[in-house]
Hints:
Largest sheet: 2 strands, antiparallel
Radius of gyration: 20 Å
Number of helices: 4
Shape: elongated
Order of helices and strands: HHEEHH
Strand content: 5-15%
Distance between the termini: 48 Å
Number of domains: 2
Helix content: 55-70%
Amino acid sequence: MSYQSEDIFEKLSNKYNIPREVIKTMCHHEFKVVKESMSDNKLPNIRLKYFGLFKASQIRKKKAYETELKKFKEGKPLTTKKMYEEFKQLQEQGLL
């Protein structure tokens, strides 16, 4: 964290009479949600007001798909029911 950010947190804390750590959490919370959502293999598109749309790269999507396919072949639970149904359908068609 840069000195400038800490200074801004301090000023906001004093202005609104809210603990500095609460201000800091409020500022970083949205990005924490983006990180957590992207870290599992669901890979949603996430829009943050004033910041824009966050999307997973094609490479990340491909890697997540391969990971889920490996889990499916090993009989392990998948991240989403939709992914399971998709793989099951491909398996029934003889494509897996």
